[in-house]
Design brief:
heterotrimer; A alpha/beta; B alpha+beta; C alpha+beta; B: 2 domains; about 30% helix; globular; C: alpha+beta; SH3 type barrels; 2 domains
């Protein structure tokens, strides 16, 4: 947020938008529509409980359990729900498996649809015009900005989330990880690899 | 509507400022805003909410952040609706509400008009109201690669004209068809039957 | 595009709404006379501003900002000099400086864009043509809403300077220019017989 948006009268350090949201919250609390303690719980839920670690568990399980991977391909909603991840913005899930032949990448050009139960709330760049405008017309240019250069023979397939179907990319398992446990593998699954803008592995 | 939210294929926004990790909320008000939108007991649909966010002036839409769009959406809806305080969520209601399974799929009597593998063209339409058919695919030909069943139809749901469920398809377009680019890359979209016509 | 709100015509609108707008018109036309850029370069410079800036900045703001960009790019001035409001580096040579007595003749002369070309026009009046589905990163004068649409050639304008090359300093590369008529039915899915015309260069078109 802009740093020049601070209140200069010395009474407050809140930006105009922060003040407006605060006023709206006070009003809705006063009218009895919302309970501020419930807001605290909701914020904490998305800050600490529902986030990309959920998706990483799905991916690591798909890497190590062929039967689970098959289930994920056939019915991602059920397969993901079996790990306890379900609900808002993940009602109809599809898993997209990246291979040497095809690299899948997810965007929502119209708003910022994102599979919340497995990835949490979307990062700023995913919601911003540069990504939403370019992912569909210049996916390889976008990937290059994330440091990913794919071989020419790998086909890029971009999924624009126009309906209530949500997409989770299952990145390729990094090489030389045969001896890692499922939990250790989950540690290699960075968030962006599940959107399709990076490869799996530790992000520097 | 052909608003600023319909960004696919636009140029000039510069590089993607991607941080490998970042906080869920960058400022406290963002969290409060997100929580308000998810807890105000309002009788509106996700489609009406999206339509409200899209009604911002295009320049303002692009200059403001995601949660400012949410604020605009909620303020717009609160001008029309009075929330029901008997539906106020308590702290213990949050987890069940966020993790409740809610389907957008509906049963319809009519069969799907298109089959897997069929070529379809996206209709050229320019409604002044909410639609999920982006401008960049209109008039273009793609192939049906998945049939999702019938889902709530946003174009009618956003206008409070009922769910009017319609068959939903994933349609595959080549980058060659959409953008005249000489690659084998593809773009997939989920499109409802009323957006499509046979080729 | 939609969502910009109503058109607000002003009754007895003044030529300029503020003193600085008058200076902008003078400055930009005077600097154009220096002969260091062309109309297409300036258009492209304006179009390169991000959409939120382009859509929210008034006409004269955008004009002067684009000229500033063009002047900085050619080393005529620096951002620091604008902030200081005075010269910090010696001036660069320009082709011409607009003097008061030249203003009348320069405005009266204008600049013609018709050029001779050896190439024969590919299309004639009455031909059905389809606007190509072009998406270049550079400058183009084929509007997005016409790409992929089919219309009819209704006028031939001879060959004109081709903006797509001229905007990038790649020469005038003259191309045949046609007025093409489209049906609102084909372009927007309208339910009436309204039509619209656009002037399109030959490289934008293919036989339908």
């Amino acid at each position: 947020m802009p740093h020049d948006a601070h209140d200069h009268d010395g009474h407050s350090e809140l930006s105009p938008i922060a003040l407006r949201v605060k006023a709206l919250e006070s009003l809705l609390v006063e009218k009895g529509y919302v309970d501020p303690a419930a807001l605290d719980v909701l914020i904490d839920t998305y800050e600490t409980k529902i986030g990309p670690r959920n998706g990483a568990k799905v991916v690591a399980k798909a890497w190590t359990d062929p039967a689970y991977a098959k289930w994920l391909k056939e019915d991602a909603t059920q397969a993901i729900e079996s790990l306890g991840f379900t609900g808002r913005q993940g009602e109809h899930m599809v898993a997209l498996f990246n291979t040497p032949e095809i690299h899948n990448m997810v965007v929502c050009t119209l708003c910022s649809c994102y599979p919340w139960p497995v990835l949490g709330l979307p990062p700023v760049w995913y919601k911003s015009p540069p990504y939403r405008s370019r992912a569909v017309i210049d996916p390889r240019g976008v990937l290059a900005e994330f440091g990913v250069t794919l071989p020419e023979k790998t086909k890029v397939s971009v999924w624009d989330s126009t309906a209530e179907v949500r997409y989770l990319v299952i990145p390729m398992r990094p090489a030389n990880t045969e001896n890692l446990s499922e939990e250790e593998l989950a540690g290699l699954v960075n968030r962006d690899s599940m959107i399709g803008t990076r490869l799996a592995g530790r992000v520097a | 509507m052909n608003g600023a939210h319909d960004l696919g294929g636009m140029m000039g926004f510069g590089p993607i400022a991607a941080a490998p990790s970042e906080p869920v909320f960058h400022e406290k008000w963002e969290g409060r805003m997100a929580a308000l939108v998810m807890t105000v007991p309002g009788d509106w649909s996700i489609d009406e909410d999206r339509q409200a966010c899209e009604s911002m002036h295009p320049a303002k839409y692009l200059k403001t952040s995601y949660y400012e769009h949410w604020l605009h959406g909620l303020e717009t809806l609160l001008k029309k609706y009075t929330p029901d305080s008997s539906g106020r969520m308590r702290p213990e209601d949050i987890w069940p509400a966020l993790t409740a399974y809610r389907s957008y799929a509906r049963d319809v009597p009519n069969p799907a008009a298109f089959a897997m593998g069929q070529k379809v063209r996206v209709k050229i339409m320019n409604p002044m109201t909410h639609t999920r058919s982006p401008r960049y695919v209109r008039g273009h030909v793609g192939e049906v690669v998945k049939i999702h069943g019938a889902h709530v139809f946003p174009d009618s749901n956003a206008l409070c004209r009922g769910e009017n469920p319609q068959w939903l398809y994933t349609v595959c377009f080549t980058a060659k068809e959409l953008w005249n680019r000489a690659t084998d890359d593809t773009v997939m979209l989920d499109l409802w039957e009323p957006y499509l016509e046979p080729v | 595009m939609m969502g910009f709100g109503p058109v607000k015509p002003e009754i007895n609108e003044p030529v300029f709404h503020a003193e600085w707008e008058r200076r902008v018109l003078g400055l930009t036309l005077a600097m154009d006379a220096c002969g260091l850029w062309n109309i297409d370069i300036l258009r492209h410079t304006r179009e390169c501003f991000p959409a939120d800036v382009y859509w929210s900045v008034p006409y004269y703001d955008l004009r002067i900002e684009a000229h500033i960009k063009a002047m900085i790019a050619r080393g005529l001035i620096t951002e620091a000099e604008i902030l200081a409001g005075r010269m910090q580096a010696p001036p660069k040579p320009v082709k011409a400086v607009l003097t008061p007595e030249k203003v009348g003749p320069v405005l009266a002369k204008g600049s013609a864009y018709i050029r001779a070309t050896e190439a024969k026009p590919l299309f004639k009046i009455g031909d059905r043509v389809k606007a190509r589905n072009l998406h270049p990163e550079g400058h183009i004068r084929l509007p997005g809403y016409l790409r992929g649409k089919t219309g009819e050639v209704v006028r031939y304008h001879k060959a004109h300077v081709f903006p797509d090359k001229n905007a990038h300093g790649k020469g005038e590369n003259p191309q045949h220019l046609y007025a093409v008529r489209f049906k609102a039915r084909d372009v927007f899915g309208a339910n009436n017989d309204d039509e619209l015309q656009a002037d399109l260069f030959e490289p934008y078109l293919e036989a339908a």
